[in-house]
Amino acid sequence: MSTTETEEVTHLPKLKDTDSFPLWDFEIKILMCAKELINIVDGSGLLSDQGRDKENIRKWKMQDAKCQYYIVLLCIVYANTFHVTHCDCT
């Protein structure tokens, strides 16, 4: 039986508040490295670096969407996390 991407991360800690941030930050960075997405998260691979190559732009946008998916999946959304849902990520 194969594991879905969602099932892979359900055991990871969710970001609840500032107290849970250090462990969450550590775990999310490991996840992004394992998924080969860390360049999107740490800013070492920017959309502007893709030039005009449509395939590279498409791949970067897909990686960015995956990062957003994992981040949202690993947050507990409360009213005070409004800033997470309204950040400019590209």
TrEMBL record:
Domain of life: Eukaryota
Protein name in UniProt: Uncharacterized protein
